[in-house]
Amino acid sequence: xxxxxxxxxAVDKISRQTGKENLLDFSANINPKGxxxxxxQAIENNIDNIIHYPxxxxxxxxxxxSSSYDxxxxxxxxxxxxxxxxxxxxxxxxxxxxxxxxxxxxEYERAAQSVNAQITYCNLLEKNNxxxxxxxxxxxxxEQDILFLCNPNNPTGTLLETQDLTMIVEHAExxxxxxxxxxxxxDFIANSEEFSAKPLLKNNHNLFVLHSLxxxxxxxxxxxxxxxxxxxxxxxxxxxxxxxWNVNVLAQKAGLAALNDNTYxxxxxxxxxxxxxxxxxxxxxxxxxxVYKPSVNYILINIQDSGMTASEFxxxxxxxxxxxxxxxxxxxxxEFFIRVAVRTRDENDVLLEAIEEILS
Length: 360
Ligand SMILES: Cc1ncc(COP(=O)(O)O)c(C=O)c1O
Known about the structure:
Its cofactor is pyridoxal 5'-phosphate. Helices cover 38% and strands 15% of the residues.
């Protein structure tokens, strides 16, 4: 039987279980600026259009994604969230062997299991601050069909540079291995051109770059993401394997408005940069926890020295009305890891106070 996977953001479920309302959610990594005004307006303006089926070609949205991320429009496939595309890709490529780094986002594992692939893990070691060993990865990808990489990595926040990715993708190609690079948190990074694999698409047919639009644009309940691959056959087979109306009318219009809103994007990045530093620096002042340096809007913490497990810590935070992510179900992490999102200054201060009280 397949194992159940837990994710952050299960606010309704936790409310039902605990009877608590108005919980502060630090378990999902969503832009705390919330919906941009223009996205809200686009949704309101298009509400009457939900009496029609969505545009199956999504050309307007694809063209906007193409110009925003400098990817050829014909290489793009749009999904009902990025996660949908992970499943469609596995369904289409039918890998027998899948290589995952651990810890990483759990849906790669679940999608691989859904097509009965054999999974191998390349462990990111705590003693190396969870930095990927390129040498180990290169050895491990021999005889693999698909490698999944998450960059920036969730939950560790570790980041690979484009030049490392180039090397990985080329080694994979030489070994007949397809590479999926998940850049779902890349929009939070100002100098993303140093880390993104999107420029590699043109020259590497064995590369699929995945990108969620639900994190940075705060649309997880609406669902929107895209992927890109320069292998026309892969994109075509994915198009043919999906629900033709997978991206609803409002999500298409919201995506267009979001990508057109440069002010929201600039303000969000500026705000997040200082707030990430603030929360990180304040957490470093706490004794009995080890805080890993974040690159984007979430922070991994080892609480072993507190004498509590992540599950106990999570329950204590919940008593204070705060949801955090217990990371003990990530392969490659012990029962002492938690992850917190970076939110608004007021919310971050509430989180810090709660952590201080629990640790004192
Ligand atoms: C690394 C990563 N990729 C993809 C997703 C899912 O994105 P979406 O909401 O677009 O399906 C998540 C959600 O937590 C994630 O952490």
